[in-house]
């Protein structure tokens, strides 16, 4: 399976677009790397770049970008609102797919060594790649910033992990590491005062603020028995925050780094800022995401805001993301385009042709053409997705039925399950066609020599096994729709009982059609043990499907009478 690792270097240039283009051009020059996002900021004078690729290609692209930034950016002239210490200020690696932490840490160390030795730039390792855990935190390393590092780097405890123990005047120093996914997130306030924005930032950030005797920012700090300042903890874990003024928009913001989006999700950070701002007589007007986010961030946020409205959460991904964008005002400062800002969507847009991107007429035309794919397997998966969708529709209609307010959560939960089933079955629409194409590719391998014939035969066998496993997955996934449809037949809005019936028919047809596709792929296999195992699974799922369909059909018929 493909290994993917994300790299998000931050460059200390956000105003000279030609400089930014030259840096990103070096990234795009590396084969096997996809440039996902370039997000410059004039006030911060900083650009956040996001790209993904295999580990080796990503390390090479990062090195070329750091090299170009060192050539073009002069830190002696740099001014900006964001803390910084180098032309390439920070360069983290984040595992995305099939990459372990050990591999991500190895990428950071490999890049750090090259930057230190070949570019003569001091490098510090941070987060999971840190050699010295007291220097794992980025803000601790960057304290003093570029101007203060000339003296700081000479201290024994601040000897770099790679490169010279003297600051490179032109390029500064660079921090490289491996970390969890971080979301850079700014919340907009209806004030221009940095002091007031800082007050909100101190309320929400994990570090909180120093306790004073009179509870005012200018008051005398309270100290403990060891003479250390006593801190009032903030409202959110895994959040770093400061307030700043953004000249181009004429507003102050709470600028946050969310370092663990599982424990402190995006929507929680937003609502906590709303709460803290309101207590101080301020109003949150919107927010912005700097760089890119995983799809889950926005899907979870959409569900959260629907839940607050006491409405069904069983909306499509597209609807949930739209709800998140509107609820958090992500388009207040500039349009928020999920296709450009969501990692999964950006990768999908670069991945080529997909049946799911076709409209109904295009899909039917493609199926009807003289090409053997898409064929019965993809159509069966689509029927399964439609069956689950009808069950989910009934759940959503039932959740919104007048007088059924006490049942909203019950039907909402079923609608969410329906959405998940629908999405998984839709993914198999494309996967079935991809599996068929792998079989065709295997048949196209050369077969001149005995070695080539043997390799071709093995490749055909392996590809055909995979082509049989995909429709089996379709059968297994679609069979889970029966529980949903059964619940909706018995407890759902009676006005939608015919929709449950159609959903059950579509699910039954899906399972029957997918079974045919498993069988035809098994016919040409030599591995009898594999064939026997799949044939038994097909018989079992098919029999259960008939039994479940009859139960639902009886309920439908009784309510239709």
Detailed description of the structure:
Helices cover 52% and strands 14% of the residues. The protein is of the alpha+beta class. The protein has three domains: 4-178, 2-Layer Sandwich (Formiminotransferase-cyclodeaminase, Chain B, domain 1), CATH 3.30.990.10; 183-347, Alpha-Beta Plaits, CATH 3.30.70.670; 353-560, Formiminotetrahydrofolate cyclodeaminase monomer, up-and-down helical bundle (Four Helix Bundle (Hemerythrin (Met), subunit A), Up-down Bundle), CATH 1.20.120. Strands 1, 2, 3, 4, 5, 6 and 7 form a seven-stranded mixed sheet that branches. A hairpin with a 4-residue loop joins strand 3 and strand 4 (46-53). It starts with a strand and ends with a helix.
């Amino acid at each position: 399976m493909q290994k993917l690792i994300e790299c998000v270097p931050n460059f200390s240039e956000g105003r000279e677009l030609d400089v930014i283009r030259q840096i990103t051009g070096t990234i795009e020059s590396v084969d096997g790397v996809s440039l996902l996002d370039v997000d410059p900021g004039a006030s911060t004078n900083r650009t956040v770049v996001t790209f993904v690729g295999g580990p080796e290609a990503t390390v090479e692209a990062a090195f070329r970008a750091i090299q170009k930034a060192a050539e073009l950016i002069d830190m002696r002239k740099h001014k900006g609102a964001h803390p910084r210490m180098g032309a390439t200020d920070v360069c983290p690696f984040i595992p995305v797919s099939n990459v372990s932490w050990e591999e991500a840490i190895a990428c950071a160390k490999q890049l750090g060594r090259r930057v230190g030795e070949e570019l003569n730039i001091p490098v510090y390792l941070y987060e999971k790649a840190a050699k010295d855990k007291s220097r794992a935190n980025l803000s601790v390393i960057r304290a003093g910033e570029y101007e203060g590092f000339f003296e700081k780097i000479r201290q024994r405890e601040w000897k770099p992990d790679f490169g010279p123990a003297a600051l490179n005047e032109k390029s500064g120093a660079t921090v490289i590491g491996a970390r969890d996914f971080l979301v850079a997130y700014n919340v907009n306030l209806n004030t221009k005062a940095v002091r007031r924005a800082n007050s909100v930032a101190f309320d929400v950030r994990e570090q909180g603020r120093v306790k004073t005797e009179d509870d005012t920012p200018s008051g005398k700090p309270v100290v403990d028995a060891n003479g250390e300042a006593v801190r009032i903890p903030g409202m959110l874990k895994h959040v770093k925050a400061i307030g700043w003024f953004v000249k181009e928009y004429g507003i102050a913001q709470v600028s946050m780094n969310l370092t663990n989006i599982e424990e402190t999700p995006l929507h929680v950070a937003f609502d906590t800022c709303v709460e803290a701002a309101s207590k101080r007589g301020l109003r949150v007007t919107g927010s912005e995401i700097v760089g890119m986010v995983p799809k889950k961030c926005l899907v979870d946020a959409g569900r959260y805001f629907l839940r607050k409205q006491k409405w069904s959460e069983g909306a499509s991904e597209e609807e949930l993301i739209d709800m998140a964008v509107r609820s958090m005002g992500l388009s207040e400062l500039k349009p928020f385009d999920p296709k450009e800002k969501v990692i999964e969507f950006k990768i999908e847009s670069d991945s080529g042709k997909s049946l799911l991107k076709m409209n109904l007429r295009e899909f039917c035309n493609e199926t009807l053409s003289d090409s053997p794919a898409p064929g019965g397997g993809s159509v069966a998966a689509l029927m399964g997705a439609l069956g689950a969708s009808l069950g989910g529709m009934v759940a959503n209609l039932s959740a919104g039925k007048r007088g059924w307010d006490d049942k909203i959560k019950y039907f909402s939960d079923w609608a969410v399950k329906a959405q998940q089933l629908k999405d998984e079955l839709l993914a198999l629409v494309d996967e079935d066609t991809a599996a068929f194409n792998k079989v065709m590719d295997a048949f196209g391998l050369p077969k001149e020599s005995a070695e080539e014939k043997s390799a071709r035969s093995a490749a055909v066998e392996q590809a055909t096994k995979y082509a049989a496993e995909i429709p089996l997955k379709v059968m297994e996934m679609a069979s889970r729709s029966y529980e949903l449809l059964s619940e909706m037949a018995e407890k759902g809005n009676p006005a939608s009982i015919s929709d449950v019936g159609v959903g059950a028919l579509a699910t039954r047809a899906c399972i029957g059609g997918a079974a045919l596709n498993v069988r035809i792929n098994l016919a040409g296999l030599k591995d009898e043990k594999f064939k026997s195992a799949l044939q038994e699974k097909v018989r079992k799922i098919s029999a259960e499907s008939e039994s479940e369909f009859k139960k639902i059909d009886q309920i439908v018929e009784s309510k239709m009478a």
